[in-house]
Task: structure prediction
Amino acid sequence: MTGKEKLLSALKTKGIKYIFGYTGGTIMPVFDEMDKMEDFEFIMSRHEQGATFMAQGLSRASLSTNNPQLGTCMATSGPGAMNLTTGVADAHMDSVPMLIITGQVATGVIATDAFQESDVVGVMMPICKQTYMPLNADDIEPTIHEAHYVATTGRGGPVLVDIPKDVQNDSVSPKYRFNVKGYRPVLPGYLYHPAPDREPLDRAIKLINKSVRPLIFCGHGVINSNAGALLQQFAEKVNIPIAFTMHGISALPTDHPLSLGMMGMHGTVEANKAVMEADLLIAFGMRFDDRVTGKLNEYAANADVIHVEIDPSEIDKNVATSVAVNADVVNTLRLLLDDPLLTYKPRRRWFKQIDEHRKVMKDELQAEIEEGVGDTGKLLMKTIVDKLSKVTKGKDLIVPDVGQHQMMAARFYNYQTENSWFGSGGAGTMGCSLPMAIGVKLARPKERVWSISGDGGFQMNMQELGTIMEHEIDVKILLFNNGYLGMVRQWQTLFFDGRYSGTPMQNPDYDHIAQAYGIPYIKVEKVKDIEPALKKAVAQKGAIMVEFDCDPSEVILPMIPSGGGFDDMIVTRPGKEKSALKKKKKGSKS
Amino acid sequence: MKRRAILAFMLDRPGVLNKVSMLIRKKMYNVDTLTVCSSRVPGISRMTITLREDDIAKVTQVIKQLEKFTEVISAKELDTNKSYWREAAIVKLEIDSDHLKSLQDRFNFEMLEKKNRDIQIIQVAGSTAQIDTFLDEIGRENIIEIARTGVAAMEK
Result:
């Protein structure tokens, strides 16, 4: 058998069915073999970056199913591999398991600047959990098994295997043996702690019982260890409110009475105020990213911190912990739930305090949502998301791109399905939505998937409409078109005196673009047409694109300015727009 | 800034040194010294890194992130008072033999080659401070060429 056959049989053994990617000179032997084997479904992206997001979508959406799959992408050497980098860095930031296989020039010409040669391992090393370059055919199969193990255990991440073309074609040696069933990776330095130690857990329980104003943080780790339901039980057992990181969204229902919604830069007033006032933070599976904490020296100054996290290097990185629990979230919650010492408290004063914060922007936001249009008379994104939430009863899978619309989708969709929110967090990669939605749909074919993009991000990967067309992938595409890069425009409104440098853009005729790919298209310009269009998208069998004519002056509030603290939270709209809102309110009264 | 020594054991695999140096660069340190050698166990390397940092929390972060590498088996900071830090240097110098002889009692050096009456090559070993003092005493202006190994360290 040859290296390429060993590669593919190893992938098959590890349950990999979908391969996303793009062929080329140095990966051709593998593609040729793949064609012969007929065990894989190859999904051709139109750009290698698209393949990485499709793989991410598959990994993330499938982890809560009975069939978790490792998103796998393949590309050729040089430009093919380099085009993968953005999506790989994105997966690394967001702890998404992914396997990347790249072809490399033959060993005889490596490091001679051969055609389409680049130092892929060198480039990928800082943005991968691990990188490999097997240099003989015998190494390929064990490498794939180790790569799969590293990608999917502990804190997930992308793993690269770069295989020179001659190694793909070489036969394994006559003495080659590999025991698939008995395989255990030999990685003495790779330790992760799935189960918590008893001692920190006891200290954590004492702190929880003592606390008057505790707050739970639900991070990505809760989703990654399928612990949403357990976290909900835990919160109910001890009667503690929950704030979510962006990637923690959808771990449990958004409208749960204990939920305060998302925290951080664009988090809710109640979540952020509660963080400020809490005397105990119980953080599950998160890394206290700067968009969550704001200015670190002012962050949760009066609170003890219990940090449950699988990656020990995240503990005490940004926020000093009182109790560090280096373990998997699900195992920690199981132990906590069974602990008879944990006590329920009514916490009436604490909840009353939080209820006061809930009121701060509630009426204003509700009025905006009901109005449906902004100062320019064009549609508000929050209204569209609110209506989408109602039409789908909050049960669908939401794949936002990056920007204002993403924050609207995070805040105004009422998530009811566990693990139903996918997007780019740490890296904030515009253009992720359309390809990621493809991967999500392949992982959960029976559920409805909505890709929501702004006009900026959509155009970064809109070539993937070709993949949607070719594989007849049923993704509902919502395009929030405001003719600007909305989030940057919001910063320019708030912090750059309204100088819109580099944000306005001329858009193509999306009707024609949708048509060119054979995708039905609806344009919505009026509030009354939003719901019918969404219902039509629901009824449509197969992909559909709905473009909304959105108000560029809409802002997502509250907002904590970059580098600011929670006290700097902006809760009222800026000057001009604020007065316009007042006028409208007056008008409606009279 | 305080000099810190980090001792790490890791699998002897290609690219590990690359990863370690990239991490140190990413954390915005300049490596003072870095030495790698094989350990007692075949296939496992021993690495000693010295860098300058006052904040212990930041050093802990570097160590935790080193430990995060799949290949790294363990990493820790070595306490200055509870460990030996030693290095060696080979020095080619133009020096009066009598002057050199006068230093023999205080420094641990060995003559490797006497090229002619004035030019000699010597080997010196000791702590970084000892070597520095030795070089000061022979006179830095007398040094033609110098090769220092960097720090190797071990706990007491």
Observations:
- Residues 83-155 of chain B form a domain with the Alpha-Beta Plaits fold (CATH 3.30.70.1150).
